[in-house]
Amino acid sequence: MNNKILKKGFTLIELIGVLVIMAVILFIAVPSYFAITNSIKERMYEAKVSELKAKGESYGLESGNYLFSVGTLVEQGYLQADSENGAILDPRDKQKMNCDIIELIPNNDLTFTVNYISSKECFTDEQLNNQYGFINFMVKNDKNEVILDPSSWHQSNKDTISFEFKEQYSSLQDKLVKILWIGEEEKSCSIENKIECKNYEVSASATKMVTIYLKLILEIEGQEILQNYSKVIA
User: Fold this and answer.
1) Which comes out higher in pLDDT, residue 206 or 219?
2) Which of 17, 105, 144, 150 has the CA that lies 20 to 30 A from 4?
């Protein structure tokens, strides 16, 4: 009799009950596992960004370059790549971080705020300056109207290009020692007459497209910093 009881298997209801319990356990455990895994990866990412910002600040202070990509840190030997092809990898999804941007913004007390900007697109130094650099361009036509899209052709006898420092970089205005415009003709100013180079005029009496280049040299803590910009005027 006892042997018969021992050999008796699970009933269908008992088997279903076991499966339901297992399903409930999996329903609870699997999301928890992924949540914990994602949390760990997120903390790893934050730690990596903190490291990149610290390395970026060291590079910026030593080189005088306040705007650069993560890839620059690898090229300059400030950072060891995660792979043989020189890639810095995001711990969350293994995507490359080399195109991400590090920006140093000077504070009034000679310290810096370090910003980290994610970017899927890689930029040249000039493209970086045009998009994230120290200044904003302003283009006006001969009626003193601001041209919102100077790269699209418009009817004007003369365009005037000027620049202004962005608010976060306003403390650098007094550090400017030389300005050089290159377009239809060159216009250069040193520290003594730099106000004269605030504006640059472009003749626009005919349909044409001109790329204007602006080079700014600033002296910060005894270092000369060169900033290259460009603007298409049509």
Assistant:
1) 219
2) 17
